[in-house]
Each structure stands twice: as C-alpha cells, then as structure tokens.
User: What shape does this take?
Amino acid sequence: MATKAATTDHLFPTTIAGSLPKPSWLAEPNKLWAPWRLQGDELAAAKDDATLLAVKVQEDAGIDIVSDGEQSRQHFVHGFLEVVEGIDFAKKVEMGIRNDRYKAMCPTVTGELKLRSRVHAREARLARAHTKKELKFTLPGPMTIVDTIADAHYGDRVKMAMAFAGLLNQEARGLAADGVDVIQFDEPAFNVYMEQAAGWGIEALHRAMEGVDAKSAVHICYGYGIKANIDWKATLGAEWRQYEKFFPALARSKIDQVSIECIHSHVPMSVLKLLDGKEVQIGVIDVATDKIETPEEVAGVISAVAEHVAKEKIIPSTNCGMAPMRRDVAEKKLNALGAGAALARKKFA
Ligand code: ZN
Assistant: This one.
C-alpha cells in the first residue's frame, strides 16, 4: 500500500474542486468533451505528462490538497462509464438531464453493471509518486451518474444508483490503496433533486465509501460556467436555498467534507450552519468568469464563511471544476487561491 501524506496542519488548507484545463497538445482547449489530440501509447504518455504538470502548478500556487486535474478523462461522468461493462454506448437516447436543464445524448444500461478494470489507477499512482502533498481524487456521484444515463435493465433508478455505488466503492478502495487521501464524489444532481438527495442520494454515497480508508467528500455545485447553467441560475431567485433542503441530512451522514460554491453565489452564508461538524470546502474562486480574484477578495470570502463555520473546518477551494477555462486564467486563479488563503491565515493567526 502506498504511503499517504500527513494531514496539513495549518489553518485554511486549500484544494480545488477537481479539474484543470488540459494543455492544447492533449485536447482541444476551452471546451467540455474536447476530443483527444493523440491516440494509443502517445495519448497515454501525454496524459501522464499533463498530470504531472497539473500537480506542479497546484504545488507552485500553494495548494495543499492537490488533484490530478482530471487530465486523463474526457468528462467527469463518462471517464468512469468508459470502463463499465453493461452499458451500450452505441444505444444513445436523448435525455433532458438535471431535471431537463439540458438535453444530452446518453448511453444506455443494458445489462448487469461490472467494472472491467481499475479506472484511475495509472494517474493516481503517478500523482502519488510525484507529490508529498495530500492527494484528492474525484469520482462521479451515483445520483449524478443515473441522471446522465438511460436504463433498459434495472427498471428502477435507486437500484441502478446502488449498483453504480458498488462499482464506485471498488474504485474508491483501489484509490485509497494507491495512497489517495481524499475521495470526492461530484453530485451536482443533489441541487436538482433535493429530497431524493437527502434520502437515497446520501445512502448511495455511504455505499460507495463503505470500508474505504480515505476521507470522503461530496461536491455539490450549481455547475460549470456554461450557458445552460448561467441561464438556470438566473431562474433561482435572489437567494439560493437548495442546499438547505439536504444539508441537515448531510450533517448527520458519514461523509467527512462537503464542497460547495460561495463566491458570487446567491447562497446565503447562514445556510452553512446546517453543516455543523463537517469540514467545508468553500468555493472562493469563481469559475464562471475570467476575471482573476484578488487575494483580498479570497480572504474576504473566507472571513465571511468563518462567521458560520468553525475556522478549523474551512478548506478554501474553487466553486467548480476549471476544465473549460483558459489555462493561463486558471493558473492565475490558482495563485489567487493560494495567496488569499495565506492572507486569511495571517488575519486569523
Ligand atoms: Zn461543480
């Protein structure tokens, strides 16, 4: 078993939601679902190189809990599904996903689900071998997966979610053995199906983390800065209270950390009180704009959150993944995150 990193002991350890933009030699830039530029062994080697670069830019920016930048996967859900048996990728069905916010052509589950192999072993081991920082890996959450795939086998969403949770559990156990410290499930669907999130959504996460020797986190955001999401946010009113509906259930859950968006979001900060006892990854970097935050702005968000969350539980992060951003912008934003957290540490010292 690989050795894990020692937990960061200073206040406000920083992390990122997960993804970073890919270099233009790996995939077409500024795009979700960007096609790869290479194939076969060349692609595998290029993914390795990009993973090392992603770790390096995070370290240089002063990020404490680093990720692989999701450089080896094309999409946060489909990167996982690619290695799952029982899915027919040729049988695409148009689905209105996230409660019909966008239409997507989704593959279909046609048989018993099984993992064909490990999913992220290569990049996890590579990242672990090249950083002494805490290492975080992201996986799609069961509820978000079943919202992104058609079902012609299980006939029941919850049953299918639990089947996926079993596969996620296998991969999570593998990642922990590879030396990964934090395993984060991305569940944007929690903000759409709030009642189910509080029930079987959390149960499925518990199944996914059963017996896994790592910290667990769940990322629940309002989506990337793409048009469909920006339009949806405009319909949510002055105060976004979606979190309120399932935070009490999350506070009672076994999940260690909750990752949420804060900066420029209409989530009332007082809602964070409902997560009492949990570590909270707070988004202090906006991924929907290219404008670079100043360290003072970042420290300001941290201070505002500290009025509602114990400061020992605050982990400054990005609002969401940075995959579709410009690379130079993302790097500047990482620097602002590191510098802003350092500034906040001084204020609270
Ligand atoms: Zn997100």
